[in-house]
Q: What sequence folds into this?
């Protein structure tokens, strides 16, 4: 991207909040993220964040342990609210004005998600943290991220991960895997690259939503991504 995007949807996995611990919420890790977000939006970029809950519980994992899948997914959605509140606190301690909006109604903790209200918050310069996924079981937070990005008119979806982008193969299994600088949605589908779940991916392609996959654990990467600088892998309908 040559210019800083006007409005960004950032997808943060819950695992990123756990730092090196692998689970729970690490104050140092979430503080570093908050500082990079503060620096990244300093130029006026509007930012909404969809946050996962995998550091606390995953619906699919709970289902594998005997819970009903819908119940497990509901537990996972509640975990994203906990993460959203933690991130909100870290951001506000660093001078940012935020709003947490939840797809599940819990008015004492968060505003209900209403698209027009979310857009209005962004227009006023607030960071909007979107919790509870889509509010429905069987849908991932990746799908929620694409859906919300389209709804709020985001210029780009930033998918923050623990790997450096999209590779020819899983780099954790094959150290010789090669990272793509850019590729098209169609190429990713044809090559069966595991960028995100297929529901989310095809929705992004249908709506011509640019996607950037990058390693958020590398210091400075998040700031660069928010400012529109080249980082990770860019996926678009046309490259």
A:
């Amino acid at each position: 991207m040559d210019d800083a995007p006007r409005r960004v949807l950032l997808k943060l996995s819950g695992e990123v909040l756990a730092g090196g611990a692998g689970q729970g919420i690490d104050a140092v890790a979430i503080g570093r993220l908050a500082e990079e977000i503060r620096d990244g939006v300093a130029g006026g970029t509007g930012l909404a964040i969809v946050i996962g809950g995998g550091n606390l519980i995953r619906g699919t994992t709970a289902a594998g342990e005997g819970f009903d899948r819908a119940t497990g997914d509901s537990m996972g959605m509640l975990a994203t609210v906990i993460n959203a509140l933690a991130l909100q606190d870290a951001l506000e301690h660093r001078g940012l004005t935020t709003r947490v909006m939840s797809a599940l109604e819990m008015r004492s903790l968060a505003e209900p998600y209403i698209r027009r209200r979310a857009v209005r918050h962004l227009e006023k310069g607030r960071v909007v943290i979107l919790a509870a996924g889509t509010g429905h079981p069987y849908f991932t937070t990746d799908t929620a991220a694409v859906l919300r990005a389209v709804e709020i008119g985001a210029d780009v979806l930033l998918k923050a991960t623990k790997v450096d982008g999209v590779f020819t193969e899983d780099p954790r299994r094959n150290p010789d895997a090669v990272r793509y600088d850019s590729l098209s949605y169609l190429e990713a589908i044809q090559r069966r690259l595991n960028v995100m779940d297929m529901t989310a991916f095809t929705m992004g392609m249908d709506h011509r939503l640019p996607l950037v996959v990058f390693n958020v654990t590398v210091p400075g990467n998040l700031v660069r991504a928010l400012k529109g600088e080249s980082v990770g892998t860019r996926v678009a309908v046309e490259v």
Remarks:
- The chain is about 40% helix and 20% strand.
